[in-house]
Specification:
Elements lengths: L9 H15 L12 E5 L11 H19 L3 E5 L1 E2 L3 H14 L4 H4 L1 H15 L2 H9 L9 E2 L3 H16 L3 E11 L4 E3 L4 E16 L7 E6 L10 E4 L13 E3 L7 E6 L11 E4 L5 H9 L27 H14 L3 E14 L7 E10 L4 H9 L4 E3 L3 H10 L4 E2 L1 E2 L9 E4 L9 H4 L5 E3 L10 E3 L3 E2 L2 H4 L2 H4 L6 H7 L1 H4 L4 E4 L4 H15 L6 H4 L4 E4 L3 E2 L16 H8 L1 H10 L7 E2 L2 H24 L8 H5 L9 H22 L3 H27 L3 H22 L4 H10 L17 H10 L6 H23 L8 E6 L2 H9 L1 H8 L1 E6 L8 E6 L2 E6 L5 H27 L1 H6 L2 H27 L2
Parallel strand pairs: 1-2, 3-4, 9-11, 15-23, 22-23, 24-25, 26-27
Antiparallel strand pairs: 5-6, 5-14, 7-8, 7-13, 9-12, 10-11, 14-16, 17-21, 18-19, 18-20, 26-29, 28-29
Amino acid sequence: MAEISKSYDPHEVEQKWYAAWESAGAFAGRVNPAKRPYTIMIPPPNVTGVLTMGHVLNNTLQDILIRRARLQGQEALWLPGTDHAGIATQTVVERELRKQKVHRRDLGRDKFLAKVWEWREEKGGIILKQLRALGASCDWERTQFTMDPHYSRAVLNVFVDLFAKGHIYRGKRMVNWCPVSLTALSDEEVIMKPVKGHLYQVRYEIVDRPGEYITVKTTRPETIPGDVAIAVHPEDPRYTALLGRKVRRPLGPAAEIPIIADAMVDKEFGSGALKITPAHDKVDFEIGQRHKLPPIDVLNADGTLNELAGPELAGLDRFAGRKRAAELLKERGALMQEEAYENNVGYSERADVPIEPRLTWQWWLRYPRIEEAKAAVRDGHIRFHPERWSKVYLHWLENIQDWCISRQLWWGHRIPVWYRAGLDKEKLTEADLRDPEKVHVSLDGPADKTGWVQEEDVLDTWASSWLWPLATLGWPDQAAMGKSGYNYFYPTSTLVTGPDIIFFWVARMIMAGLEYANPGQPIEKRIPFRDVYFTGIIRDSLGRKMSKSLGNSPDPLDLIAKYGADGLRFGIVSIAPQGQDIRFQEDRIEGGKNFCNKLWNACRFRQMSGEMADNSSASAILGRFNPACFDADDHAILDRLFATTREVDRCFGQFEFSAAVQAIYGFFWNDFCDWYVEVSKAKLQDPALKANCLAIQDLVLRQTLLLLHPFTPFITEELWRMLGYGAEGSFISQAGYDDASSLANAGVLHGLHLNMDAAAEVAQIKQTVSLLRALKAEQGEAAKKDCEFVVECADRQWDTIAANLAKLKRMVGAASITRGAMSPNAPVCVTAHGSWNLIRQLKGADIAAEKARLAKEIEALAKHIAGTEARLGNEAFVSKAPPAVIAGARKQLADQQAKRAELERLLKSLG
């Protein structure tokens, strides 16, 4: 058995074990009817992506769940892959071509796509390689790409099927439009930014009341030529007499437009009157539809103004047109006021320019299975964690709108629709779309494509990724499904994702699964997953979302190099409470590294303390126990081990990963290292007690490594082997997981019966040591060994202290600990411990200083109490935090209040 080195080198260990795992096929998910499957499909990162802190958190949590499932004997499959990311990838490749002074249209569609594939082969998928450095235990042999041939056929198959069912249609409607990329965008591809601009107050003359005007406010005077009406609220008394009258449009081709009433108008904004420009605003479009007002589109696709804007504006860029429109309005006496104004404007995520709401012909999808998708979550077939997201999900489904599934790109799944050559697509009716003589819809197109022209548009990226749980397992090809284990691994078990894509991806996957998976089967056989865990957003210390543009996000690979993958994993999970946003703190990542070092040193101490015996199983270790040798500390450490195991099991059941990490940390650092290892040093010198003590340490370390392995896989694998818990060629994941009940039952079989009174006694002694050490530290005497203490307490409490006096003096560093009462005149420092006091007799000290110290502690405690009360009084916290967190906060408040009361009593006793 190799000797554990003095210091831990994470990089050497990480490289060694990851190579060993991959070489042995340890990550492979195989159909095994003897085991229960556990499946996670990785949320496919963009093929253009690189590792971010968000990826670190999300993928660490997935890996924790997968490794835990393996430990529990389940057949675990974590299937990786990447998304083709239509607009993102096309933008990257076009940017590279522009450096060579080449535009994609110079190449043509086929040659451009060949360039994209070249780029993908050379640079795409970097993030998957980076995930290996994090320790991600994906089944890499199953890596998928949403443009793989089999996946593409699945996507196109769904389009053809949904078109045949009447769910897909073509229509001219309002979309987010990027004037640089020249494509429609999903809401997810639009980033809202605060923009400083101007608010223009413009007057419109009433036609039959010369000299009288109605005033509106707008940020976009360049769109006035597209105005088709002025709207007011029907209950606004200022305008009742004007309804039905007309005003003259002050810009663009001369026109008289009506004053109409619509309840969507905000009476409180500006003058209470709203200019209606249906072609350039979503709200205006809805109002225009209700009032049957024809839209006037004054912008070209590239954001320049067209001839409908009038000769004075036509040809100008929209921003130059805005400035010129304001000048023209001012010249005509129609611009009443111009004021500085800041509002949120949608920007194209990739092109980083303001988007345009634009009326365009697009392909649309009426969602299938909406009512079943509601029932899947409402009835508990799919569970959301935190549960509050189910309300958001259901609200969206109640107000769902049709999905724009087409994009004006070349990279993506080209829509499988062919038109008769010469047809004007914009004049096609719904009946024409269903006429096979005019429009052909199929996977491969007409047998003879002569005289047919395929649709130029591709499908929205989400229109492929909504099939991720299905197509990655071979659907709809029966042979591929059989080979991949579709019937075994579907439905999948857990999805870990961000709440920002609950609509774009989560809800759509649910509907796709209900529509296509296992037809005729109950809903629980068709849903794509059973649990969904929503992570929080990682923010910097100022609360800002981490992003490249702000430069406030550390490079995860730098953190791995600095702290090790396990340190990063442990640290990031420790600051990520369930479903809440995370304030990133690098010192917590350093804390993860420190914990790994503590684990390493504790295992090294065990190896140095005595020969390693049979550690091949928990039962083998328990067989080495000698219950006759047990003292209170032995009972206590095993009681805490079992309690910690139960708590970790509970945390996994509730998806409370941060709480699980904290439970393991508290047990291992405080209960085992700081207490049990210390009190064991005397027993290790006693030949009659040494073997039993080492066996207990072996069991504790074995179970700790099992509990920790999902969180810190590298160091636990290394120590597992070096302490003899696993045979050569085996891995910790193959050992099997012992829960608290199975450990306790195995202990009973070996004659072990834990003494709970002894465990409680140790808890009291540990608390006493902690308080006495704190008393020394407060007086700057932490290193002194000759301190004298007096305990003021009842008989029962003193009996416990007296029975452990030698241990107490050794652990505290005290010359004496005696029982007595606090002298009213002697200078002392005091700390409260429930109903009794610990007193440090001070020699030559100033009693006034002790009173000042107590007053300062009371003041600090009051601030903590106020903070805890504020948290519990915050409805947002109480409604979102897990019950265990709320209960913990309430207990903390009660403890703080009790301690303050005792400190106040002690301060009063000093006069």
